[in-house]
Each structure stands twice: as C-alpha cells, then as structure tokens.
Design goal:
- By secondary structure, the chain is α+β, with helices and mostly antiparallel strands.
- Helix content is about 20%, strand content about 45%.
- β34 (about 495-500) and β35 (about 505-515) form a beta hairpin.
- The chain starts with a helix and ends with a helix.
C-alpha cells in the first residue's frame, strides 16, 4: 500500500512538474515560427452504393465541418441535401432518383469557424431496377455452306464451302471460320484430317472430334459503379449442332430466383455474397448441353474496374451458376485480362450453359444475404465514421511522438526497389538513332500490366509505375502486338510510403526518359537520418535565397539502375498536417534538392492538396533531375533577424550540435500544453493540492485519536 504522505508527495510533484512547463522554454524555441495555415479542403470524393433510385456521396475534409451535396441533371445543382453534424468524414444519402440517369453533383463543407470548401463537378449514373433485362442477343447455330455426312466407316464428316464461307482457313486437322453466323465470332471444326477439293471449293473435315464455337461479345451499360459489362463464351461440342437459336440476356443484378440460388451456393461453400453486378442468362440451350464436349463452356465476363475495386479486388470476384437441372454452384474463376476501364474474368462451366452471375464474395461469418443493387453492401462500404482518440491519447500523443523521434536514428530507413520492366516490350534501335518498339499485349497483360492506346500515346500501367510512350505516327495494332517509333517517353512511379516519427510519408516522381527502360530499376530510400554535409548544403542554399532552414522532416534518396533520365523531373512528397502546422503552415514548407553533381538548391514548391491518407501533398519541379530530396521548413532570413531569440544562438557548428534530449523535448511539449490550457491546469492543480492537504489533515487527526486511545 502507498502511504498517505507518499501519495501526497507524488501528487505534489506531479502538479509541480505539470505547471513547471509554464517556465520551461524549448531549446529550439528561436527556430519555430507558427504562422500561415493549411487550406481547408475536401478530398476522397466519390459516389458509392449506387442503386436505381439511391446513391451515397462520401468525402473527407481536413477539419470538422458540415455536409452539403448539391445535385441535379445539369450543373445547376438545384437539389441539395444537408447534414449539420460536424465531422471530418462525410456521407450524405440521396434518394428519390430516376433510374439509369446521369446526375451532376458537388460537395460543400463549412467549419464552425466559417472556413468553407466546394468541390468541382462530378457525375454518377443510377442503375436500372434489379432484375431488369438490359440486353438480348441471339446466336444461330445454322451455318450457311456447312453440311454434315456420315462416312462409310460410321464417322462424321463436315463439308465447308469456301465460296459461302470465304473466311475459312485450314490447318492439318482443323478448319476455322470467322463470323460464320449471327451471334458467333468463330467456329472451329476439328477432325483427324482436312481434305481440300479445289474443284468444288470445299474443305472436308473427316472424323469430327469436336466443334468449338465462340460467341460475339454482348455488351451493356449498367450504370452505377458496374459500368460497361461484356459477356462472351466458348462452347465445346462433340459434334455440329444446327437449327438452334440460343438466346443470351444480360440482366441488371439478378432475378429473385437467381439471387436465392446464388446465396444457397455461397452458403454451401462457406461464402457470403456482397454484391451481384449482373446476370447472364442463356435459354434454348438443351441441345447444346446434350452434346457438350469435355472442355465444357468457357465464359469471359467483364465488369468495370470501379466495381472490382469497390468490392475488394479481383480476388473477391466469383462467377456463380444456376443450372436448368437445379444445380447451384460457384465455378472456378480467374482474372483473365484488362482492357480500357474493364476487368475480365474467365470461368469454366463443365455442366453447360444456364444462368451465370458476376458476384463479389467474402468468407462467411454469419451467412449474410444478397445485395443485388450492384453497389457495396453494408459489410463492404465505407460507413463514413471516424474513430476518435480519447483525451488521454491526445495528451500522450506528443510524448509518443518525442519517443519516436528519439528512437528514429536507431531504426532502419524505408528502402523500396522498384523494377522498371515490361513483359513483352522489345526495343529495336534504328540507324537514325530512333527506337522502334513492339509490345506483345497478351504477355504484358498476363504479367499484370494494363495497356491503353490513345491517338499517338501508348500507356502501360502496372504495379509500381506507369510508362507513357509517344510515337511519331499512330501506333499499329495487329497480330496481338502494338508497334511504333518512339518520339518521347515518360515514367511515373506509384507513391512509395514509409512510417517515420512524424507519421506516414510518401514519395513519387514523374520524369522523362532518354530511352525505353530495359531491366531497369529505381531504389528509393526514405529516412530521417540527415548527413551533416547535406544539412550544411541545404543551409547554404537557403541563405542564397534569403531563407533559413528550420527543420528537416525526412530525406529521400533516389538511385537509378540502367535508367537514363532526361530533362526536369516532378517530385511529390507528403507529410502529416500536424507537422506542417507546427512548422508554420503550407507557405513555410519547401523541397530541397541535391543533384548528382553535388549542388544544392531550394525548389519552387507548391501545396497540391491532400492525399487519401489525409496527408499534405507538396510538389516541385527539379530542373537537375533526380538524386536526393528533403522536405524542410523555411522562414525568411529577415524575419529571423527581427525575432527576439529566447535562447542565444549556438556557436557550435551544425555538424557538431547535439539534438535536445528526449526529456527536454517532452518538457517543452508539456509547457506548450500547459500554456494552451492554463485555466484547466490551474483547476487541476488546486484540486490536487486541496486533496493532498485533506489527506494530511485526516492523517494527523487519525494520529491524535490513536494517542488518546493509548492514554486511556
């Protein structure tokens, strides 16, 4: 047990320690200027959970504020929805909307201090009511100029007139026809041999082994975040089938019976269905299913990138089947490729054609229900709530920050090596000094790349970086490859992040290249360790610009391997709003650079908004390329000279100065907290003092009673 006197001494010492912060001046007080501000801004603006008559608009702000959404069919924003609750995370539901209609919207937030921000125009499109048939196509199996016959040995022979089917081509045992009939992209007839009769312009495929038919893709716009979808199938049959008209329907979401069937299949496989984007329904398929080959049916279903991302990525997507025989099953689904803004998935149905659903799933927790609207279900959406820290956490946060600063020199820096190479991209130098490229798109996409061609621009995006190549002429796409002569090329990296004492930070770059990269790499090191020579170089560069460096947040070292840059580079560095405010606001932050030749410079730095993590983004153009960059706080040299220094400036060289101890820094923070909350601290101190005096008086009274008892 702690004695009452010891308890009082503890309370008294704690109170003295708390209030002593009023008289403690941090060692670097002369080097801190609190001025400027972080612009109040809205970011991460999006429309989610879009249905046929509803949508949710979400966004975040770097300060608690109200929520207003203006929306309409044009940019008048004549309709508004308001939530007066102050928050930094916002969600405003819209209802009563018209189905399959494009709406314009913007968001506005205002703080209690009157700061306001308004976003630019954005749009979303509502979906059709779930269960609506959006698109219908027919595929006819009767092919003009194709007939079958039974040979003397009992085998089946297919005769193909090249007059009627001029696109027919043959190999040793296969004849392929392009666009053979309504609804089909191609048909392949595979036998033991192909005999050509030039006199009758006929190919005869003997002893048919299989027939593979590929449908023409059926596409539809489903609105919401589902967007443009596509459905295509390969059907493997044991023999030709004619006289059948297969109906293919694309349905928004799923009908009630299909949704229930998908849920049964999910429950049986310990899965939860989060969302059904759309259903593909095949009818009049009995004959095809009766002659199904061993390869079954291969489906290629596409859906928008937004829907895939909103539902957790490609790993959470499955294709479900509801058969005519009552069979309900998820079928094996894999990511196939990406084109434009659409992600394509491949699945094999060994049990034939029927009803298939594009479904997002999650491991089962409680056997939840189905959301047919195509948006995000409650389990997968951003509710808009913000976790707030307790008062104790807020008080301890500066102490934790100082401990992290103390430990930072002993921590390893964040090092990221990003290979810069594209599978299937080959370069051929020409005598004129130009570079000709050939990109095998299938190889590139198989390795995870996304390829876009717009006019003379070829854009290749893959995890970690994006290459943008401008060609001298329009690039040629043929035989699964893109070719062209390079005019210019640029590299943009995905932000590389690291956790430092001041919180998470990130760095990315955008630079022109002198040549197409081949087995190249960029190594990025983010660290709080600052070389004394680097610090000295920054101080000199600042003085040349009539500035003084107050603090260096972190340093980024960029190393290139087999990568030749050319011209100025754009760099982006991020940091927490707290660090920015503590060091004078956005106008007091700059990016310093040391080039490969060792020269140091302060770059013209711009505030560029807030990233998804809520950090402040700063950008700058480096005319001398890459090497080392640092995010620093700055102040005018003239202002520094006029500011009275609380502590005399040190005469020790910067390289030999020791940073203030952790105890000093914590005491300085304590002093700032006390100064900002003086009345509260005095009240707490008075209560503690009164409590201590009461304990002593009670203790004295108890001693007196004990003495009287002894005398008696």
């Amino acid at each position: 047990m702690i004695g009452k006197k010891n308890l009082f001494l503890f309370i008294l010492c704690f109170s003295i320690g708390l209030t002593s912060g009023l008289f403690w001046t941090p060692a670097d007080a002369a080097n801190v200027m609190i001025s400027g501000s972080i612009p109040f801004d809205a970011y991460n603006i999006s429309a989610i959970g879009i249905g046929s008559d509803t949508a949710n608009i979400t966004w975040k702000t770097n300060g608690d504020s109200n929520s207003i959404v203006g929306y309409s069919l044009d940019t008048s924003y004549s309709l508004t929805k308001t939530n007066t609750t102050l928050s930094s995370s916002h969600l405003v539901p819209l209802d009563g909307l018209s189905s399959f209609t494009t709406y314009h919207y913007l968001v506005k937030s205002t703080t209690s201090d009157g700061l306001s921000t308004t976003s630019s125009d954005a749009t979303f499109k509502t979906t059709r009511p779930t269960g609506t048939t959006v698109e219908s196509k027919t595929a006819e199996t009767t092919v003009s100029g194709v007939s079958t016959a039974t040979t003397a040995s009992g085998g089946q022979q297919v005769n193909i007139s090249t007059t009627a089917q001029s696109s027919a081509t043959k190999t040793a045992n296969t004849v392929t026809i392009t666009s053979p009939a309504t609804g089909w992209d191609s048909m392949e007839y595979i036998g033991t041999e192909v005999v050509e009769d030039p006199g009758t312009n006929t190919y005869s495929v003997n002893n048919i082994q299989s027939v593979v038919m590929k449908t023409t893709p059926v596409t539809a716009d489903l609105g919401g975040n589902i967007g443009d979808v596509s459905a295509q199938i390969d059907v493997s049959l044991t023999q030709p089938v004619s006289g059948v008209a297969v109906q293919q329907n694309i349905i928004q979401g799923a009908t009630t019976s299909a949704a229930n069937a998908f849920q049964v299949a999910a429950t049986n496989n310990n899965l939860d269905i989060k969302s059904v984007a759309y259903t593909v329904e095949f009818t009049n398929t009995a004959t095809l299913n009766a002659n199904l080959g061993s390869d079954g049916v291969t489906l290629y279903l596409g859906v928008s990138d937004d829907w895939v991302e909103a539902n957790g990525g490609t790993g959470n997507v499955r294709i479900f089947r509801f058969g005519d025989d009552g069979r309900k099953e998820p079928i094996s689904t894999t990511y196939d490729h990406h084109s434009g803004s659409t992600t394509y998935f491949k699945a094999v149905s060994p049990h034939g054609l029927s009803i298939f659903g594009m479904v997002s799933i999650a491991p089962s927790n409680s056997g939840g229900g189905v959301n047919n609207g195509g948006g995000i279900s409650d389990s997968g959406s951003d509710s808009g709530s913000v976790s707030s820290s307790s008062p104790l956490q807020q008080v301890l946060a500066p102490v934790v920050l100082e401990i992290n600063k103390f430990l930072a020199p002993f921590q390893n820096p964040g090092v990221t090596k990003q290979p810069i190479s594209v599978e299937g991209l080959t370069v051929t130098p020409s005598p004129a000094g130009t570079q000709k490229i050939r990109l095998a798109t299938a190889l590139a996409e198989k390795s995870g790349a996304t390829v876009f061609v717009t006019n003379n621009l070829i854009t290749i995006s893959q995890p970690g970086f994006t290459l943008v190549m401008e060609t001298r002429d329009t690039p040629v796409s043929e035989n699964g490859a893109i070719t062209g002569t390079i005019k210019s090329i640029g590299l943009r990296t995905t932000p590389v992040s690291s956790s430092l004492s001041m919180g998470p930070v990130a760095f990315s770059l955008d630079t022109p290249l002198a040549a197409v990269p081949d087995n190249a790499a960029i190594t990025t090191t983010i660290t709080e360790k600052i070389n004394p020579d680097m610090r000295s170089a920054y101080l000199s560069a600042a003085l040349n610009n009539n500035k003084q460096v107050g603090d260096i947040a972190y340093n980024v070292i960029v190393e290139k391997t087999a990568l030749v840059t050319h011209g100025p580079a754009m760099v982006m560095l991020t940091i927490s709003p707290d660090w920015v405010m503590t060091h004078g606001g956005t106008e007091s932050i700059g990016i310093a650079h040391i080039a490969d030749d060792g020269t140091a410079e302060l770059l013209a730095t711009d505030y560029s908004g807030i990233d998804e993590a809520g950090n402040i983004i700063f950008r700058a153009t480096s005319p001398k390329g890459l090497s080392a960059f640092s995010l620093v706080s700055l102040k005018d040299q003239s202002a520094t000279e006029q500011t009275p220094a609380t502590v005399p400036a040190s005469t020790v060289p910067a390289s030999q100065q020791q940073p203030p101890g952790v105890i000093q820094n914590i005491a300085g923070i304590t002093g700032k907290f006390v100064a900002d909350n003086l009345i509260m601290v005095i009240g707490i101190f008075s209560i503690m003092l009164a409590l201590g005096v009461g304990i002593i008086l009670y203790d004295r009274k108890s001693d007196i009673r004990k003495r009287f008892k002894k005398k008696e």
